Amino acid sequence: MPTSGFRFRRSLVAVRRNTREWLMLAKGLRSTDHPVLAHIVPTRRCNLSCTYCNEFDDFSKPVLVAEMVRRIDLLADLGTSIISFSGGEPLLHPALDELIVSIRRRGALAGMITNGYLLTADRIRRLNRAGLEHMQISIDNVKPDDVSKKSLKVLDKKLQLLAEHAEFHVNINSVVRGGIHNPNDAIQVAKRAVELGFTSTVGIIHDSDGQLQPLSEEEQTIFLKVRDMGKKNYARMNYFQDNIAAGRENNWKCRAGARYLYICEDGLVHYCSQQRGYPATPLDQYTVDDIRREFVTQKGCAPRCTVACVHYTSYMDFWRAPQTIPAPAGAQPEKQKLVQLQIR
Fold first, then answer.
1. Helix segments in the chain, DSSP class H
2. Distance CA 50, CA 340 (A)
3. DSSP one-letter string for 113-124
4. Which site from 8, 93, 245, 255 is most exposed, i.e. has the minimal number of CB atoms within 10 Å?
5. 298-319: per-residue pLDDT in tens?
6. CA torsion, points 157, 182, 310, 49, in degrees to nearest 10?
7. 48 pLDDT above the threshold of 50
């Protein structure tokens, strides 16, 4: 159980973090010439092998520290507001704390997506000291199975450690579809997240062809229950969610390549993790001109997109700038593979 002193310190950290987030939103409303969020991959290797995931391998070496710091500086030079580590499993990078410090040194918000397996009390305290501000963990089931080992049974002790020691914001993402054997597991995961004081989201995993499929009646009921458990936060603008759950397309302006960037382990800029290859420009060659072009470029995958981080970072610009440049050849909906939709 956290001490009263720790709870007070965590509250102060949350106030500072919330202030920085509101300033980030104000900056985004003033100008469209900078990314709001960038996901950057420090290593493609992961210690797990969930069957629905297409973003990992079991052999890649971590990106060199000096190169990672250079990429963080390049993102900061573009004015990026939030820099978040993805993977692979970011905690496998031996210098992750140093990289978080580099993000904070440049004034950006620091986040990460992790499977949580490698967390210990000491590791969490080190993340506090480094200045981590946001962590997301996806938990796919109550007990591990052939689809995913990211289970509540395995990770509950890790969640308790986070509740006791983490000064940063923690979000727990549960899922339905995608081969998950018991969709009711999402309710148990969400209840436990809220019980421990975390925010809760729910994800919809696509079928093996990456296609947007409507949820069954039972799954939709579960989806709504878990969604309503989630706590309010600055990103709770989710009008696209009901369409996704019903298998309907969304009509929106995707600002990937402008407001959202995905930086792979090779240092290339992509629209997102599910559209690797577009535009595939080296980060050190990416400029404000590229941001301005992609801001008004149509994305062929947008109507059936479930990449929530791109939706969220595009919200503040839905009323601006019609997209007049046609989608690039090859960037089509069928290229998307098994992606999760966070629903807040």
1. 4-30, 65-77, 96-105, 121-130, 152-165, 185-195, 217-229, 241-246, 288-295, 308-314
2. 13
3. EE-STT--HHHH
4. 8
5. 998 888 887 888 988 998 899 9
6. 60
7. yes
- For residue 230, pLDDT over 70 is answered with no
Would you state the pLDDT for residue 215?
75
Average pLDDT across the chain, whole number? 87
- Residue 220: what residue type? Q
Buried b (16+ CB within 10 A) or exposed e, 283-304: beebeeebbeebbbbebbbbeb
Residue 200 β-bridge partners: 172
Instruction: Let me know how many helices (H) and strands (E) the chain has, helices first.
Output: 10, 9
Residue with tokens 């996704």: 244
pLDDT of the residue at 148 = 82
Q: Could you give the C-alpha distances from 289 to 14, 282, 286, in angstroms and in order?
A: 35, 14, 8
What distance in Å separates the CA atoms of residue 201 and residue 171, rounded to the nearest whole number? 7
Rounded CA separation 121/14 (Å): 20
Return the structure tokens found at 300.
């062929």
Q: Cis peptide leading into 88, omega within 30 of 0? A: yes
**Residue 183 to residue 188: CA distance in whole angstroms:** 10
Question: Model's pTM, two decimal places?
Answer: 0.90
Identify the residue whose tokens are 């397309």: 249
The string of pLDDT tens digits covering residues 62-104 is: 999 999 999 999 999 999 999 999 999 999 999 999 999 999 9
- Residue position matching structure tokens 């072009």: 293
